[in-house]
Amino acid sequence: MENYWDEFEYSKLKLLLNNEKVNSILDVRKGIKKMDEYFPISVELHLTDSCNLKCEWCTDKKLRQNGAVMDLQIIQQLFREFWQHGTGVTLEGGGEPTLHPDFHKVVEIGQSNSLDMGLITNGTVDISKSVPMLRWIRVSLDSSTREEYKKEKGVDCFEHVLENVEKMSKERDCERTFLGIGYVLTTRNQSSLIELVRRLDRIGVDYIYLRPVEEAADITPSLENLLDLRKELAELTSRTRIKYMLAVSDRIIDKNAGLPCIAHSLTSVIHANGDVALCEKRRGDGIILGNVHKSSFEELWISPYREQISQKLLQPECQNRCSACRVTGFNMIFEQLEKVHSKRFI
Q1: What average pLDDT does this structure show over 283-289?
Q2: Are 93 and 49 in contact (CB under 8 A)?
Q3: Dihedral sign for Cα atoms in the order 33, 38, 39, 40
């Protein structure tokens, strides 16, 4: 049996835990209403645009020029709103979130508001004291050796990052905080991947999440290579505690599979400068709902402009410039549900 990381492999089943949200989205698809007014299930919050690495394939290089750092008072206001609406918050970038000058304070504010928080980090900063307050942590490693790390990330701190991962593992309550590794696959960072997974298993990491690099066709692994790797991982993890997920199918579908994008309201992105973006993938046609320095998130979320955008995204051609996106899988599910003829029967 393959040792999948269930939280991700079956992530779309989480829709069953958000019945009102699902029905609201389907009402938009049926034309009963013009937009889903319920808050996102989760929000990606960029704390800063600063980063201490130099990843060659980084898709957020332009953000480095902004140097934005989210104001602590704005974060407090957002956290109060998200607590009221039961929205989870992923602290990420943008840049490297742990470089925010008040990172630990941010996490404390989230805990005081009873928020469920996750963190995506490069692991270069020791955040051990914040670990118990987070629901999950994913460290972007993207390399299997010191040499690969220097080539991929532009700095020499592979072992330092793994030391911090081990500290996180020791500080956490395994029932409270899941610890994972994010791994962007290229054609040049797989030389010792299987041995790395064994090492992560010894450290106590729960899972490794692998996905092909985006927007860098010259170093993107082939589908054949990905399927071969999946076989190796399945064989290895059948004998280990650590689990894995290798994103394949959802990374080769672009343009939202030619479907209306009604699942966009499942999540949202707030940039470090306060801009609320509809989606991180619309780099060719970015949609900014407004800025939280001028309006509350709720005001932006239920605004006439977002209603207009919601209707616009019902037109499949509006996704012609979208890259591969995890929301596509949800759109495919909603499309299937909308067509079910025998919903009153099991």
Answers
A1: 78
A2: yes
A3: negative
